[in-house]
Structure formats: C-alpha cells, structure tokens
Design a protein that fits this description.
The chain has two domains: 107 residues, no CATH class; 33 residues, no CATH class. 37% of the residues lie in helices and 17% in strands. It has six helices and seven strands, in the order E-H-E-H-H-E-E-H-H-H-E-E-E. The longest helix has 18 residues.
C-alpha cells in the first residue's frame, strides 16, 4: 500500500479522513469509523469545508468530494481504494483485512468495494440522492451530470 506522495517513507501516526458531509453513506461510515478501536488515531473532516481548506491548502478539494481522501500526519495522501485500505489499517479489528487488501489480488476486491460504494452514494439505488460537488456540478441518477453553478444556465459557466 504505497501512498501517492513523496512522504512514502514517513511513519503514519495520525490520519485525517475527508468525507462528504452531504452524503448519508459517508456520514454513516464516518460515525462507524469513530466508534471503532483505533491503532492509529483517526480524525474526520468534511471534504471541501473551510477546515479542510485551511488544513490542507495543497489538495484538490473538488476531488476530495468525488473520491475518499485520507491524509497522513506527514503529508501522505491516499485516494480511492488506497484510502479505504489505510483507514482499515488504522482500526484494531480490521488491520488484518487491510493487509490482505493491500496485496495485488486484494486490491481488486478493494477497488470493487469502492465502485459499489460509489454507485450507492451516487444514487444508483432506488430512492438514491443526488450527489453534489463543491464546484456546482451534481449527479442525479435519472438525468446524469448537470451544472448548477452561477452562470451555467446562461452559457457563461466557469466550471466548463
């Protein structure tokens, strides 16, 4: 499980999980994480929040709303399946699972779990909610991606 940053050799003593506070699945997982016995302390911060922007000015905060992002105390940044694996690694009861998922065959399972969660989160189930991003884009499973940023309806959309 290699981090996606230059801090690869630094020890991990604390992890911050950035989660989408408007997503019911994300909030449920956050609450579950905080109830688990931890070998490495976990903090949770809403992705795209003022706190996240202040603490991690170098991150692509739009991307943190699209994909789970975990930041280590030495600047390590984990995204997607790696973020899930490192989060499980921090939990006493789930560290063995994290080690299994960090193997090549386990990574396939981790990726599948992330894709399944993304489908549920994105509204791919009956009664699913619309997923909104900080830049004004939103995904509704009935109609797909649309832009709700100011100016988008007039053709002057700053987000593309």
């Amino acid at each position: 499980m290699a981090p996606a940053t230059a801090a690869a050799g630094a020890p991990v003593r604390r992890l911050t999980v950035l989660y989408d506070a408007e997503c019911s699945l994300c909030a449920f997982v956050r609450d579950w994480l905080l109830r688990q016995p931890q070998l490495v302390p976990l903090e949770t911060v809403p992705a795209g929040s003022a706190e996240a922007l202040r603490r991690f000015p170098g991150l692509d905060h739009g991307a943190t709303l699209d994909e789970i992002t975990v930041v280590g105390d030495s600047g390590q940044v984990y995204r997607g399946p790696q973020a899930w694996i490192v989060t499980l690694w921090a939990l006493r009861a789930h560290r063995p699972l994290a080690h299994r998922l960090s193997t090549p065959s386990g990574a396939v399972l981790a990726r599948g779990a992330v894709l399944a969660a993304a489908k549920w989160r994105g509204g791919g189930r009956p009664g699913g909610k619309t997923h909104r991003r900080a830049d004004g884009w939103r995904y509704d499973p009935r109609i797909g991606w649309t832009c709700a940023a100011p100016g988008c309806d007039s053709g002057a959309c700053a987000t593309g």
